[in-house]
Amino acid sequence: MAIKQLGTDKAITIGLLGYGEAGQAIAASMHEQNPEVALFAYDNAPDHAQLFAGHEKLVHQAKTPQALAQNSDIILSLVTADQAVAAAQMIAPHLEDRHIFFDGNSVSPGTKKEAASYLASSGASYCDMAIMAPIHPRGHKTPLLIAGKCEAQAAPILSSLAFSYSWEGESVGDASVVKMLRSILIKGMECLISESVTASQGLGLDERILRSAGQTLGIADMPALADYVMERAANHGRRRAAEMREVAKTLQELGLSNDMSSAIAHYQDRIADMGLSEEFGGAIPQDRSKLAAKMRAAQMAKKR
Predict the structure, then answer these.
(1) Same structural domain for residues 55 and 139?
(2) What's the structural domain count of the chain?
(3) Among 66, 140, 182, 202, which residue's beta carbon has the most beta carbons within 10 A?
(4) Helix axes 288-303, 222-253, angle to 10 degrees
Protein backbone atom coordinates (compact mmCIF):
# COMPACT_ATOMS: atom_id res chain seq x y z
CA MET A 1 0.00 0.00 0.00
CA ALA A 2 1.32 3.45 -0.90
CA ILE A 3 2.20 5.79 1.94
CA LYS A 4 -0.31 8.65 2.03
CA GLN A 5 0.09 12.24 3.05
CA LEU A 6 -1.74 12.81 6.30
CA GLY A 7 -5.29 14.03 5.84
CA THR A 8 -5.35 13.21 2.11
CA ASP A 9 -5.76 10.28 -0.24
CA LYS A 10 -2.66 11.33 -2.18
CA ALA A 11 0.39 9.08 -2.22
CA ILE A 12 3.67 10.71 -1.22
CA THR A 13 5.98 11.52 -4.11
CA ILE A 14 9.58 12.64 -3.63
CA GLY A 15 11.77 14.69 -5.93
CA LEU A 16 15.56 14.75 -5.75
CA LEU A 17 17.03 18.02 -6.97
CA GLY A 18 20.55 16.82 -7.72
CA TYR A 19 21.39 13.17 -8.31
CA GLY A 20 24.98 12.86 -7.15
CA GLU A 21 26.27 10.77 -4.26
CA ALA A 22 23.64 11.91 -1.74
CA GLY A 23 20.72 11.69 -4.13
CA GLN A 24 21.67 8.23 -5.31
CA ALA A 25 22.22 6.95 -1.76
CA ILE A 26 18.84 8.24 -0.61
CA ALA A 27 17.12 6.83 -3.69
CA ALA A 28 18.63 3.39 -3.07
CA SER A 29 17.72 3.20 0.62
CA MET A 30 14.27 4.67 0.04
CA HIS A 31 13.54 2.15 -2.72
CA GLU A 32 14.67 -0.68 -0.46
CA GLN A 33 12.50 0.38 2.49
CA ASN A 34 9.58 2.06 0.71
CA PRO A 35 9.42 0.64 -2.84
CA GLU A 36 5.88 1.96 -3.24
CA VAL A 37 7.03 5.61 -2.97
CA ALA A 38 7.51 7.23 -6.38
CA LEU A 39 10.90 8.95 -6.71
CA PHE A 40 11.77 11.53 -9.35
CA ALA A 41 15.16 13.15 -9.89
CA TYR A 42 16.61 16.02 -11.87
CA ASP A 43 20.27 16.86 -12.43
CA ASN A 44 21.71 19.37 -14.88
CA ALA A 45 25.27 18.02 -14.79
CA PRO A 46 26.87 17.62 -18.23
CA ASP A 47 27.08 13.85 -17.65
CA HIS A 48 23.51 13.56 -16.34
CA ALA A 49 22.72 10.68 -18.70
CA GLN A 50 25.56 8.71 -17.14
CA LEU A 51 24.30 9.55 -13.63
CA PHE A 52 20.94 7.93 -14.36
CA ALA A 53 22.24 4.96 -16.33
CA GLY A 54 21.17 1.75 -14.60
CA HIS A 55 18.98 3.59 -12.09
CA GLU A 56 15.69 3.16 -13.90
CA LYS A 57 14.29 0.95 -11.13
CA LEU A 58 15.14 3.53 -8.47
CA VAL A 59 13.98 6.83 -9.93
CA HIS A 60 12.12 8.44 -12.78
CA GLN A 61 14.35 10.98 -14.49
CA ALA A 62 12.73 14.41 -14.71
CA LYS A 63 13.96 16.21 -17.80
CA THR A 64 13.38 19.72 -16.39
CA PRO A 65 12.98 21.42 -12.99
CA GLN A 66 9.36 22.04 -13.91
CA ALA A 67 8.78 18.33 -14.48
CA LEU A 68 10.39 17.54 -11.12
CA ALA A 69 8.07 19.98 -9.34
CA GLN A 70 4.98 18.78 -11.17
CA ASN A 71 5.63 15.18 -10.18
CA SER A 72 6.81 15.72 -6.59
CA ASP A 73 5.32 17.03 -3.37
CA ILE A 74 8.49 16.73 -1.30
CA ILE A 75 11.72 18.00 -2.82
CA LEU A 76 15.17 17.30 -1.40
CA SER A 77 17.82 19.71 -2.67
CA LEU A 78 21.11 17.78 -2.72
CA VAL A 79 23.58 19.71 -4.85
CA THR A 80 27.11 20.94 -4.20
CA ALA A 81 27.50 23.84 -1.77
CA ASP A 82 28.33 26.33 -4.51
CA GLN A 83 25.08 25.48 -6.34
CA ALA A 84 22.66 25.64 -3.39
CA VAL A 85 21.23 29.07 -4.16
CA ALA A 86 21.15 28.43 -7.90
CA ALA A 87 19.17 25.23 -7.28
CA ALA A 88 16.60 27.12 -5.23
CA GLN A 89 16.33 29.80 -7.91
CA MET A 90 15.91 27.11 -10.56
CA ILE A 91 13.04 25.29 -8.89
CA ALA A 92 11.26 28.24 -7.21
CA PRO A 93 9.10 29.34 -10.19
CA HIS A 94 7.60 25.85 -10.36
CA LEU A 95 6.71 25.40 -6.68
CA GLU A 96 3.30 25.76 -5.03
CA ASP A 97 1.98 25.75 -1.49
CA ARG A 98 1.63 21.94 -1.64
CA HIS A 99 5.43 21.54 -1.82
CA ILE A 100 7.85 20.96 1.05
CA PHE A 101 11.42 21.89 0.11
CA PHE A 102 14.21 20.36 2.19
CA ASP A 103 17.48 22.19 1.61
CA GLY A 104 20.04 19.51 2.45
CA ASN A 105 23.06 21.39 1.14
CA SER A 106 26.15 22.06 3.26
CA VAL A 107 26.03 25.85 3.36
CA SER A 108 26.04 28.68 5.88
CA PRO A 109 22.90 29.92 7.65
CA GLY A 110 23.10 33.07 5.54
CA THR A 111 23.18 31.04 2.32
CA LYS A 112 20.21 28.96 3.52
CA LYS A 113 18.27 32.16 4.20
CA GLU A 114 19.13 33.47 0.75
CA ALA A 115 17.93 30.23 -0.83
CA ALA A 116 14.73 30.35 1.25
CA SER A 117 14.02 33.90 0.06
CA TYR A 118 13.55 32.67 -3.51
CA LEU A 119 10.83 30.28 -2.38
CA ALA A 120 8.90 32.80 -0.27
CA SER A 121 6.43 33.90 -2.95
CA SER A 122 5.68 30.32 -4.02
CA GLY A 123 3.99 29.38 -0.75
CA ALA A 124 6.14 26.25 -0.49
CA SER A 125 7.42 25.25 2.94
CA TYR A 126 11.20 25.60 3.33
CA CYS A 127 13.10 23.30 5.71
CA ASP A 128 16.76 23.78 6.63
CA MET A 129 18.21 20.25 6.59
CA ALA A 130 21.73 19.28 7.65
CA ILE A 131 23.15 15.82 6.87
CA MET A 132 25.21 14.97 9.93
CA ALA A 133 27.15 11.86 8.85
CA PRO A 134 28.40 10.19 5.67
CA ILE A 135 25.42 9.41 3.45
CA HIS A 136 26.67 5.86 2.86
CA PRO A 137 25.62 3.27 3.85
CA ARG A 138 22.44 4.49 5.55
CA GLY A 139 20.98 6.72 2.84
CA HIS A 140 17.78 8.39 4.08
CA LYS A 141 18.41 6.90 7.54
CA THR A 142 21.56 8.99 7.94
CA PRO A 143 21.12 11.31 10.96
CA LEU A 144 19.60 14.65 9.96
CA LEU A 145 19.03 17.92 11.76
CA ILE A 146 16.08 19.93 10.48
CA ALA A 147 14.90 23.43 11.28
CA GLY A 148 12.14 25.74 10.14
CA LYS A 149 8.49 26.52 10.68
CA CYS A 150 7.44 23.42 8.74
CA GLU A 151 7.60 20.84 11.54
CA ALA A 152 3.85 20.19 11.79
CA GLN A 153 3.64 19.59 8.05
CA ALA A 154 6.93 17.80 7.48
CA ALA A 155 7.61 15.68 10.58
CA PRO A 156 4.74 13.18 10.09
CA ILE A 157 5.88 12.54 6.52
CA LEU A 158 9.52 12.08 7.51
CA SER A 159 8.51 9.68 10.27
CA SER A 160 6.25 7.67 7.97
CA LEU A 161 9.20 7.24 5.58
CA ALA A 162 11.58 6.21 8.40
CA PHE A 163 13.95 9.16 8.03
CA SER A 164 16.32 9.54 10.98
CA TYR A 165 15.97 13.14 12.07
CA SER A 166 15.86 15.57 14.96
CA TRP A 167 14.15 18.95 14.89
CA GLU A 168 16.64 21.64 15.80
CA GLY A 169 14.51 24.79 15.89
CA GLU A 170 12.10 27.05 14.04
CA SER A 171 14.60 29.37 12.38
CA VAL A 172 16.30 28.72 9.05
CA GLY A 173 19.97 28.31 9.94
CA ASP A 174 19.45 26.54 13.27
CA ALA A 175 20.37 23.19 11.68
CA SER A 176 22.99 24.37 9.22
CA VAL A 177 25.07 26.22 11.82
CA VAL A 178 25.57 22.95 13.72
CA LYS A 179 26.76 21.23 10.55
CA MET A 180 29.05 24.10 9.58
CA LEU A 181 30.84 24.32 12.93
CA ARG A 182 31.20 20.55 13.12
CA SER A 183 32.80 20.55 9.67
CA ILE A 184 35.72 22.61 10.95
CA LEU A 185 36.70 19.61 13.06
CA ILE A 186 35.87 16.83 10.59
CA LYS A 187 37.29 18.34 7.40
CA GLY A 188 40.16 19.91 9.32
CA MET A 189 41.09 16.52 10.75
CA GLU A 190 41.09 15.06 7.23
CA CYS A 191 43.54 17.72 6.08
CA LEU A 192 45.79 17.44 9.12
CA ILE A 193 46.03 13.69 8.76
CA SER A 194 46.58 13.92 5.00
CA GLU A 195 49.37 16.46 5.36
CA SER A 196 51.08 14.54 8.17
CA VAL A 197 50.87 11.15 6.44
CA THR A 198 51.93 12.54 3.05
CA ALA A 199 55.22 13.55 4.65
CA SER A 200 55.68 10.80 7.24
CA GLN A 201 54.86 7.86 4.98
CA GLY A 202 57.69 8.82 2.66
CA LEU A 203 60.09 8.52 5.60
CA GLY A 204 58.58 5.28 6.88
CA LEU A 205 57.24 7.06 9.98
CA ASP A 206 53.49 7.15 9.35
CA GLU A 207 52.57 4.05 11.40
CA ARG A 208 54.64 5.24 14.35
CA ILE A 209 53.27 8.78 14.28
CA LEU A 210 49.66 7.70 13.82
CA ARG A 211 49.76 5.18 16.67
CA SER A 212 51.42 7.72 18.97
CA ALA A 213 48.81 10.34 18.08
CA GLY A 214 46.05 7.78 18.58
CA GLN A 215 47.26 7.08 22.11
CA THR A 216 47.26 10.78 22.91
CA LEU A 217 43.82 11.39 21.39
CA GLY A 218 42.19 8.18 22.63
CA ILE A 219 41.62 6.83 19.10
CA ALA A 220 42.01 3.06 19.08
CA ASP A 221 43.03 2.59 15.44
CA MET A 222 44.44 5.82 14.09
CA PRO A 223 46.07 4.16 11.05
CA ALA A 224 42.68 2.83 9.92
CA LEU A 225 41.18 6.28 10.44
CA ALA A 226 43.93 7.72 8.24
CA ASP A 227 43.13 5.21 5.49
CA TYR A 228 39.48 6.25 5.63
CA VAL A 229 39.78 10.03 5.79
CA MET A 230 42.48 10.26 3.11
CA GLU A 231 40.25 8.32 0.71
CA ARG A 232 37.34 10.66 1.51
CA ALA A 233 39.46 13.75 0.89
CA ALA A 234 40.85 12.31 -2.33
CA ASN A 235 37.39 11.38 -3.61
CA HIS A 236 35.52 14.50 -2.53
CA GLY A 237 38.10 17.28 -2.17
CA ARG A 238 36.36 19.75 -4.48
CA ARG A 239 33.00 19.34 -2.80
CA ARG A 240 34.59 19.61 0.64
CA ALA A 241 36.42 22.78 -0.40
CA ALA A 242 33.11 24.35 -1.44
CA GLU A 243 31.58 23.36 1.90
CA MET A 244 34.51 24.82 3.82
CA ARG A 245 34.13 28.13 2.04
CA GLU A 246 30.58 28.11 3.39
CA VAL A 247 31.99 27.33 6.84
CA ALA A 248 34.29 30.34 6.51
CA LYS A 249 31.24 32.39 5.52
CA THR A 250 29.39 31.10 8.61
CA LEU A 251 32.17 32.32 10.88
CA GLN A 252 32.18 35.65 9.07
CA GLU A 253 28.42 35.90 9.64
CA LEU A 254 29.12 35.33 13.35
CA GLY A 255 31.74 38.08 13.34
CA LEU A 256 34.58 35.62 14.04
CA SER A 257 37.87 34.73 12.40
CA ASN A 258 37.88 32.01 9.76
CA ASP A 259 41.62 31.47 9.26
CA MET A 260 41.54 27.71 9.78
CA SER A 261 38.39 27.14 7.73
CA SER A 262 39.80 29.10 4.81
CA ALA A 263 43.03 27.10 5.00
CA ILE A 264 41.08 23.84 5.04
CA ALA A 265 39.20 24.92 1.92
CA HIS A 266 42.51 25.72 0.23
CA TYR A 267 44.00 22.33 1.16
CA GLN A 268 40.93 20.41 0.00
CA ASP A 269 41.13 22.25 -3.33
CA ARG A 270 44.81 21.31 -3.54
CA ILE A 271 43.93 17.64 -3.11
CA ALA A 272 41.22 17.95 -5.78
CA ASP A 273 43.73 19.53 -8.16
CA MET A 274 45.94 16.44 -7.91
CA GLY A 275 43.57 14.47 -10.13
CA LEU A 276 43.85 11.36 -7.98
CA SER A 277 40.76 9.74 -9.45
CA GLU A 278 42.45 9.67 -12.85
CA GLU A 279 45.68 8.45 -11.26
CA PHE A 280 43.85 5.46 -9.81
CA GLY A 281 41.64 4.78 -12.82
CA GLY A 282 38.50 6.04 -11.09
CA ALA A 283 38.87 3.72 -8.08
CA ILE A 284 40.63 5.61 -5.28
CA PRO A 285 41.82 3.09 -2.67
CA GLN A 286 41.28 3.34 1.06
CA ASP A 287 45.03 3.02 1.53
CA ARG A 288 47.08 5.85 3.02
CA SER A 289 50.39 4.51 1.67
CA LYS A 290 49.25 4.56 -1.94
CA LEU A 291 47.51 7.91 -1.51
CA ALA A 292 50.45 9.53 0.28
CA ALA A 293 52.83 8.46 -2.48
CA LYS A 294 50.61 9.99 -5.15
CA MET A 295 50.09 13.16 -3.11
CA ARG A 296 53.85 13.60 -2.66
CA ALA A 297 54.47 13.02 -6.33
CA ALA A 298 51.83 15.57 -7.30
CA GLN A 299 53.27 18.19 -4.98
CA MET A 300 56.83 17.61 -6.13
CA ALA A 301 55.81 17.70 -9.80
CA LYS A 302 54.14 21.06 -9.26
CA LYS A 303 57.37 22.50 -7.82
CA ARG A 304 59.45 21.51 -10.86
Answers:
(1) yes
(2) 2
(3) 140
(4) 60
Residues 31, 139, single domain; the answer is: yes
Q: What is the 3-state secondary structure (H, E, C) of 204-221?
A: CCHHHHHHHHHHHHCCCC
Beta-bridge partners for 103: 77, 128
Domain residue limits at 191: 179-299
Q: What is the CATH number of the domain that holds 253?
A: 1.10.1040.10
Domain final position from 136, 158, 174: 174
239 membership: H or E segment, kind and range:
helix 222-253
Query: Domain for residue 5, yes or no?
Result: no
Q: What confidence tens digit (pLDDT) does each residue in 57-112 have?
A: 899 999 999 999 999 999 999 999 999 999 999 999 999 999 999 999 999 999 99
Quickly state the pLDDT bin for 10 (edges 50, 70, 90).
low
Residue 44 falls within a domain, yes or no? yes
Give residue 45's pLDDT.
85
pTM, to two decimals:
0.91
Best CA proximity match to 87, nearest among 112, 108, 110, 70: 112
CA distances to 130, 132, 250, 254 from 247, in Å: 13, 14, 5, 11
- Picking from 174, 192, 208, the residue at the C-terminal end of a domain is 174
Question: Looking at residue 9, what is its pLDDT?
Answer: 53
Residue 56 CA to residue 182 CA, distance in Å, equals 36
The Cα 68–Cα 62 span in angstroms is 5
Q: Which residues contact 144 (CB under 8 A, 6 or more apart)?
A: 104, 129, 130, 131, 132, 163, 164, 165, 166
Residues 68 and 194 in one domain: no
Q: Coil, strand, or helix at residue 172? A: coil
Handedness of CA 283, 293, 230, 277 (dihedral sign): negative
pLDDT in tens, 16-29: 999 999 999 999 99
**Residue 46: predicted pLDDT:** 84
Q: What is the CA radius of gyration of the chain?
A: 20
Packing angle of the helix pair 109-119, 176-202 (nearest 10 deg): 130
